[in-house]
Amino acid sequence: MSSPSRRSSSPESNIAGGSGSGSAGDERKRKRMLSNRESARRSRARKQQRMEELITEASRLQAENARVEAQIGAYTTELTKVDGENAVLRARHGELAGRLQALGGVLEIFQVAGAPVDIPEIPDPLLRPWQSPFAPQLAAAGGMPDAFQF
Length: 150
Known about the structure:
It is a single chain. By secondary structure, the chain is mainly α. The protein is built from two helices and no strands. It is 69% helix and 0% strand.
């Protein structure tokens, strides 16, 4: 007995024309299946390679993210430090501005009273940053000392 899925071979199908066309169709089908399998294998290999590339990229990005977060932490610490120093300088500025204003008031009182006031000029290095505040002292001492003299 033959199964229903198999074709029964009759003497007419065994003739040169009959069995050759069936075999050629089967051969094409087999080649197409092999080609499809190979294509699927290449597709899976590409997907696997892409997955590995993405995992590597994710690891690199996580490491870079950790580095950037550490740098942000360092900058935040530095900013906090500079903010603290700035607050101290602002307070000192306010204190000195108040003292200067008070001294200006005292000076006015002396001038109104007619007392002679001799105020020496105090060099301000912020107004002339290219000049050393010690230049008058060095000139009086005989010029610049030779730093390389033993």
